[in-house]
Amino acid sequence: MPTSALRSPAGRPSRAPATAPGPLDTPLFILAPHPGLVDVPETNLATAATLLEWRVRQGWGRALGTEGLLRAVAEFRFGDQTAGAVRAARWWIDRHLGLATDDMWSLLEDWVRSLPMVEKSPAVGYERVSLEWLIDRWPSARYVHLVRHPVSYSLSMLDMPAARRWMALQGAVDDSGGESCLDPKRLWLRAHATIVAALTRIPGDRRVRIRTENLLSDPRRVLTSIARHFRLPVDSGTADAMLHPERSPFAHLGPPGARFGNDPSFLQQPELRKPRSGGPPSLEDRLPWRRDGRRLSPEVAKLAGRLGYAESPGDVAGASA
């Protein structure tokens, strides 16, 4: 999720937004082990007004984007994530297709006993309408804007077959110059420009921007700073718990019919991973996947600099957006 939200029951929500195929949201699993929060898979609910519209947008249930909600309903409504519980969850959704997605969230809240939920569907960050819808309906939500260097993001996207297909469908293709190739940095710009603009509506005490590289380099310090920024209780035990993302019920591959619902690479190896040595690449370097010597466009480089990548790898955790 370029962005994630903490939705709390008081005042209708306190989630954390984000999601579409993309390895931006994985580190947000480490917020979920906080004892005052509940992890939720990538539901993609904010991309539609009703469950019927959600199903249509997710390929009538055949797309991987449905599996997060299936796992959530199986876990929270039926008590586990067995193949039988997933079949029951699919049956339940089929019989409630007229339900508004906002009401679906209310049911999830009831099922988890009104604890704040961590929601991180990356597709929301790519669509201004979805993100604005989220902000309008959940005015008390708290937002984590998780950023990643555009080159690192692009290399990860190009390494995932599902993401490559999704980029082609999104028209993220560069036909200029001497070669035609997928252009993930175009999606990076679209997502982060959308999030930066939308979060100007959110007060500083309910939003925070974190650089992924900093989070993975020093997770205890950064996670503690996030918890304190949002006035969540934190002590040594809480900090230790947040370092174990594998404890989430959604941090592993699910049963047949709902294997995913989160970043597949994380589900196969649910652990914190150190960032590559040497720090993020320069914004002026040649793009390693291009054979024509191209560099980042001025628009991408400018936004990346604004998000902290023109600096040394210091902390970019704060309320700015």
How would you concisely characterize the structure shown here?
It is built from 14 helices and 8 strands. The chain is an alpha/beta fold. The chain has a 5-stranded mixed β-sheet with strand order 3-4-1-5-8, sandwiched between helices. The protein has a two-stranded antiparallel ribbon with strand order 6-7.
Which residues sit in consecutive blocks of at least 5 with pLDDT less than 50? 8-29, 312-321
CATH topology-level name: Rossmann fold
The CATH superfamily is known as P-loop containing nucleotide triphosphate hydrolases
Give the strand tally. Answer: 8
Please, how many domains?
1
CATH architecture descriptor name? 3-Layer(aba) Sandwich
Class inferred from helices and paired strands: alpha/beta
What fraction, in percent, of the residue positions are helical?
A: 40-55%
Task: Sketch the topology as an H/E string, one letter per element.
Answer: EEEHHHHEHHEHHEEHEHHHHH
Overall geometry comes to globular
Provide keyphrases for this structure:
Rossmann fold; 5-stranded mixed β-sheet; alpha/beta; 321 residues; disordered C terminus; single chain; globular
Structure description:
The C terminus is likely disordered. This protein is of the alpha/beta class. Strand 6 and strand 7 form a beta hairpin. It is globular. It has one domain: P-loop containing nucleotide triphosphate hydrolases (Rossmann fold). A five-stranded mixed sheet has the order 3-4-1-5-8, with helices on both faces. The protein has a two-stranded antiparallel ribbon with strand order 6-7.
